[in-house]
Amino acid sequence: xxxxxxxxxxxxxxxxxxxxxxxxxxxxxxxxxxxxxxxxxxxxxxxxxxxxxxxxxxxxxxxxxxxxxxxxxxxxxxxxxxxxxxxxxxxxxxxxxxxxxxxxxxxxxxxxxxxxxxxxxxxxxxxxxxxxxxxxxxxxxxxxxxxxxxxxxxxxxxxxxxxxxxxxxxxxxxxxxxxxxxxxxxxxxxxxxxxxxxxxxxxxxxxxxxxxxxxxxxxxxxxxxxxxxxxxxxxxxxxxxxxxxxxxxxxxxxxxxxxxxxxxxxxxxxxxxxxxxxxxxxxxxxxxxxxxxxxxxxxxxxxxxxxxxxxxxxxxxxxxxxxxxxxxxxxxxxxx
Length: 336
Known about the structure:
This protein is an alpha+beta fold. The chain has helices spanning about 50-55, 55-60, 60-65, 70-75, 85-95, 110-115, 135-150, 160-175, 195-210, 215-230, 230-235, 240-245, 280-295, 300-305, 310, and strands at about 5-10, 15-25, 30-35, 40-45, 180-185, 190-195, 250-255, 260-265, 270-275, 315, 320-330, 335. Strands 1, 2, 3, 7, 8, 9, 10, 11 and 12 form a nine-stranded antiparallel beta sheet that branches. Strands 4-6-5 form a three-stranded antiparallel beta sheet. The N and C termini lie close together (about 10 Å).
């Protein structure tokens, strides 16, 4: 199978651009319910993996042992803006593990609150690893290492016991053999895995189902409930996951990943959508995801209106003139 156009742009009524991709809609048993393009396309999971990377720590009772709050559990799943609330929670996690931010191996970048919202950082702004969008995940990594008595300096090395445990649990959640994983290194320097879209969707269907999952139920419940209770920590001001989880009213567990990956799981349905835009266009990815949810019948009128800005249907120039249109170019196909 091949990728198909998901979103197309017109200018003056003439087709100008197409964004190709694929979609998989899967239930907790891995049954393919609907798709577009290649639902088994192998894609790096990027930050959609974060909730699954927390599984070894959750299964080992880490949050209870260290006294992590629900907010801090949400931070382990976050691709955050580096806002004050995010830095505060990350620091709190490090304090509870008896560590400083200098133990983090995620690197340092300009806080996302500026890059995502296209704002210039104020003069003299100082930031460090705690502002990295992955700092909550890494603080969870470090807490697991403290709990298990593992080395801290190399916790992101692929052969470190932590990363082996993550690989094992991600494979179990996705219904795969860990030996089949293709590995790469993510932007935060941690190992990341490429999964078929359908397997990534299956993992999120299970995550969303929470206690109904026979293998990771307690862990999935704690993670999904933390994410839906605190979407502002999972993402931040003006961000996609915040908007989508609020629109989902507690039913949707959503996570974006870099380079055009997005996943939405429904707690009530035990189903999830995994989508990949091949050219990594964020606007197209968000617009396609809203359209998938609409075609699946997951949206009521209020949710349709709430998510309308993420469809970004009108293309407006610098003078405010309507110059084009962004529109869906696909229909979901049912079954495999």
